Queue: 2 jobs
Job 1
Amino acid sequence: MSTYSEEHKQFLQKRKRNRIIVLFFQIAIIVFFLGIWEISARMGWINTFLSSSPSKVLDTFSSLWQQNDLLSHVWITVYETLISFGVSLVIGMGVASILWWNKTIAKIIDPYLTIMNSLPKVALGPLIIIWVGANTNSIIFMALLISTFITIINIYNGFVSTDPYYVRLLQTLNAKKYQIFYKLIVPSNKNTIVNCLKINISMSLIGVIMGELLVSKKGLGYLIMYGSQVFNIDLVITSVVLLGIVSYVMYYIISCIEKKMIKNNS
Amino acid sequence: MKTILTIENLRKIYHDVQGEVVAIDNISLDIYDKELIAIVGPSGCGKTSLLSILSNLEKKSAGNITFHKDNIRIGYMLQKDALFPWRTILDNCLIGLEVNHTLNEKTKQRVIDLLNTYGLGEFIYKYPNSLSGGMRQRVALIRTLAVDPDILLLDEPFSALDYMTRLSLSDDVYKIIKNEGKTAILVTHDLAEAISLSDRIVVLSKRPAIVKKVYDIHLSNKSTPIQNRKCKEFNLYYDQIWRDLDVHL
């Protein structure tokens, strides 16, 4: 190893110290929060029937685990989310491509797309249950409604804002429209598409939970709804914590994919 | 001299909701094989429209364009390099061959040879962001040459560059065009550039454009564009063309 200047050593030390400080406070905040919560519960400062406590949440977690229910609830939520994520991505890419291809269709469909995107989809919940039925399909349908329109709009906006100068260049080389599409539009919108994956996974999860709150027999949304109906706050909070972990893991996986794709790019 | 392209009574009108604009009123012109012809004219006089029509990007409103060669290929070099940042230098140069379905080992090797010959050999597998403006523009020229065009259209190819780079690049581009034996139509608003590079200069009027005058450029001791600027006729042409352009602000 080569020897560095004193200044470089100081630079490295400073960097290391900064990282330790960040990590320390990240852990300290959660420990402090959980500690205060637990202490207030034990000392009787708060009513654990209404606000639960970390130890009770842990108890609920382990009893769910022992009943073998935990993983199946998590799995059903993840499964519905992934289906909605995949399908809305395919539909989003497909529709965005068609709209890019034909400006007239894009103009015709524009107001409908805007309405469908801005409409609070949860308002359609009761209709979906009546039309699709009280089952998993209606949950996935709900999630699709929430994630698809935003996907279409984001990808289409990316497609049409491709530098027109690049398009002109390909035209000077006599490129056909399909060639412009796969040689320019798709590769130049790689970042848009990856960003879309991130938004899409969050939207799908929101949709699935919304669907599960309305109609379900399994899943984290069901646990939350069930818990609140029987006034089991421990169960509600346990489910919310689990949901947080699930959403973080899914987001983390997408970020890894993003890093990999961008690495290949440069 | 052999004529490669004849333009007769060309006319171009642009339409939009507000009305119509006659960009080109009437242009008739013969382009000779292997000549470098410069087109100068006031801003917005329809120079770029002319190139767009020649390369089939836009439709003409009236007139005739006749190519005196079968299956003629036109290469168009734009003002900005438009290199795709996600493609290597070589892949950028190959894109024309790709879209024309003429990419094979032989044509690929030809592009690699061109890159090597014109000083870009070590950058073949680099990405455009590691190149300077002048080099990027040279890559853009080789990308245009990759499809082996018969006529090169150059739309102010140096205008996005700083002064020193454009002087030295115009020397390079001149050398490349003459070495490869191409016919080239250069659109520029830099009179010095036009006189030092070209064999003929066409002066267009302000919009709607007509051909105001055509100059044959004869310079004593004609050599590279930078050297040509020292010829004694250079200033005479410059003066004359400046007066033709009749620029009023």
Job 2
Amino acid sequence: MHGGGGVISVKGLRVEQGEFALRATFEVPRGRRVAVAGPSGAGKSTLLGVLGGYVPAAAGTIHVDSVDVTDTAPDARGIAMLFQDGNLFPHLSVAQNVGLGVRPALRLSAAEKDRVRAALDRVGLGAFADRKPGALSGGQQSRAALARVLLQRAPVLLLDEPFAALGPALRTEMLALTSEVVTESRATMMMVTHAPTEVADMVDDLIFVDAGEVAPPAPAGDVLANPPAALRAYLGG
Amino acid sequence: MARRAHPISKTPGIVAAVLIVAAVLAAFVAIGSRVEGTTGLRNAEWQAVRFTLVQAFFSALLSVGLAVPVARALARRRLPGHALLVTLLGAPFILPVIVAVLGLLAIFGRSGWLNIALGAMGLPEVSIYGAHGVVLAHVFFNMPLATRLILQGWQAIPAEQFRMVAQLGLPPGVVFRVVEWPLLRQVVPGALALIFVICLTSFAVALTLGGGPRATTIELAIYQAFRFDFDLGRAAVLSLLQLAVAGGAALIALWFLPPMLVQRGQDRLPFRWDARRMSTRMLDAVWITFAAAFLLLPLASVVIAGLGGLTEMPGLVWRSAWTSIWVATLSTALLVALALPLTAWLAQARRGGFEGVTLLGLAASPLMLGTGWFILIYPYANPASLALPVTASVNALMALPFAVRILLPPMRQVLTDYGRLGAGLGLRGWPFWRIVLLPRLRPALGFAAGLAAALSVGDLGVVALFADPDVATLPLQMYRLLGSYRTDAAAGAALLLLTLALAMFWICDAWGRRRDIG
Amino acid sequence: MKYTLTLAAALAATSAMSDTPVLTVYAGDYFTSEWGPGPIIETEFEKVCNCDLEWSTGDLMPRLLLEGERTKADVVIGLTSDVTARARATELFAPHGQDNSALTLPIDWTDDTFLPFNYGHTAFIYNETTMDAPPTSFDDLLALPDDVKLVIQDPRTSISGLALVLWVQAVYGDRSAEVWEALSDNILTVTKDWSASYGLFTDGEADMVLSYTTSPAYHMFAEEDFTKKAAIFPEGHYFMVETVAKIAGTDQPELADQFLAYVMSRDFQTIIPTANWSLPSALPRADWPEGWSELPLPDKVLFYSEDEAAALQADAIETWRAALTQ
């Protein structure tokens, strides 16, 4: 468990999925927050998938804090990840789901239970600990998932559009909460988004992915102020 | 693809598969070692092969064909006694052959209720005996199983989809194409293959309802070769032939299995907004009534016949019931130990065809397995002292294809839905089983275990070959009673057997279906 | 209560076993159940032998063939005449050493290995309350109206079914095929074994069932039901016998001999009719248990020696199958 963020270093990475191929070489410094943008099918989710360990790499390496994690199991990379959906087990209570962030077991010590309760209080779900996810609203489900991320204490957090299904106001609220969580844990964050402008305030850099090509991160303000042609086409500007 | 991220090992499943293949192979090798030359297949046996294929094909087709509307009706209605009906659906499948035949004939036979009713209305008598009788009996046995398999698939459709359907106001035809057909494509081929193989190995039912030697199946020829001609060579050849036909059917069916759909839901109880129209209500009512009558009337006659016999049952029968419970428990434990890792492997295997492994035991014929193992055991131990464990093992092998068929779709679903999440949280191996897989699989596991337990209670199995005078299972005791004119006492034993099998089925199934409210 | 007693008896038997010799007798599965002849034979024999009689049940022939010379049996009881040829060929058996002239069978028995202990004949059983005009001869049976239905057993899977095709062969010879065609309209169905057929008959599904001349005895003496009758035909009935034999390699030759002698004893012979619902093999009719001598039995008995039967069997079954398959 380290406090603070990790350095992500990607070299000569190649992912092949049938006809589709993704290539990437880039580095994300400690504690940076990066938005990953690009057209549908460009490979944003694949990029996060390979970083997280859910999609195998055909070539190249991934380092987190100088440790080669290219072939490491998803949970041993120091990376926590939230997906578009399916972030919670529907048959477990909210507390049990969140508790899995502490340790992959259902029986926790009193101290660990306290931490779960604290995390739930932190995201405003203190009263919902014993509910099943099916009984929660979409926003509440997202909060529960965030509470778990808090407990995972991973140096890197990957977000694959986890709030895409929420309304604009709720989404803003959740992004703000995420931002707080990331600030508290000082984690390095990469977040897939369809609306780079919406997250401009909370990220430092932006990675643009187009047709399998991953551009290295550039300061988000600069890129959005002066987008390259492909990004301009994507943004519809 | 992202297979690498799956958090459970395939190895125990592969070990289980190797064990099964070895157990079946060992039986064949043992028998092979005792073959003293054999005659080739006779013309009559080729006729048997043809009849077997034709009846099994139509039986499977009709069982599944009728199960679809019944399952749909049960999936979208909650009637009083719904749970009881769903449990009773398991009953015909687990009845000992002779009990089921007598039950069917009490309704459809010459002096059955149907002909009495027809006679009272001045209509001509109908005869059940013939190819149609064979199919009718097989549908009676297997339609409930098919219904349960399809119903299980139906209940796997997330409530969200029906909400969507309701919101779009889709008419039944479109609902069928959009939601239900993709489901059926997942469930039906496997159910067809399984029932085809069960019907393939049928023999006493086929002969009796078929009205004579026209209805000779391969299994009868195997039995004849084994027990009457003592020609182990021909028995082995026939058994291999049956295995080949079953294997072929399984491969064809699994070939048609489309890749699994990803369905995600939040465990909401489905409410069927789309089925509130009067016409669909009527239709469902008709199907449920039809199925209930067809399945329950013969059972009722078994119960009525049995009630009178209960008092005449010798005390020994009760002791046998205890033996049967013991065998069934052992058999179910063994089944679960084999089926879970096997299913976990199959769910991650690239080729669906591996599921064919599970059919080996069923298709090879229990007689074959029992005899082969007897030859192997005899030099080292008294087979009679191992009669019960051997019976339990054979019963577990017989139940294996059902269990795997029941467990596989939800297992695939869980791995697709939560494999990634589990991997991300470091849940792998036993913790993943305990925290994710087993709770998600619980309904399917309860159903599969219940079926296995009930099958084991009801099946005569191979105990007859080994039997010890002091340890008889309930079905064996029932056949003994029948064999000494004690028809009434035997009917009582049959009722006890039915009750016991259903109770064991119900306990497991209810455990699986209990949904803890959170 | 009964259970406790059985258990106590079993325990007592086990503790006594240590110093008494054990005679292992293989028997058919039905034989040793509480309601079969096994328990009473065991009790009675153990009174005189100072030994422990242990039953071992299962399918006799497959088991003996699989076990071969390593068989643990000392004596085998229940081998029917259709399997004696195959059993003899295993060379597992020793001569029975009993005097065949003491037998009271309706046929001449000269076999020195397989000793009959009870017998019966094939017969069609009917219920006289539902059948107005039962057939009085085999020819009569063939002329029955189509709506009188019979249920029979499959000769390929059942001993009584095999006896039936040999019966038809013995009565009609080359005309068997015609006989089966004539009967085919009356045959409701064919079952795998005797039990299923008899169940169909007692359930009222069939008017007549292929069974044994001794079947009515069960109903008369055990149920006091006098409505079940065997139709007796002047053409004759096929003889069915069960035998007992001694294993040559037995480690208890004296006990085995003693058991064979016991089978021929008056004690055993008077027990066997009601215990196994069959006729005693070595007891004059006048000495049969009460009521048994009034059982209608055929005057003429048909039987093929094992060699004759072996020669005829395959063709007789095929004739049956071909005629009923059309």
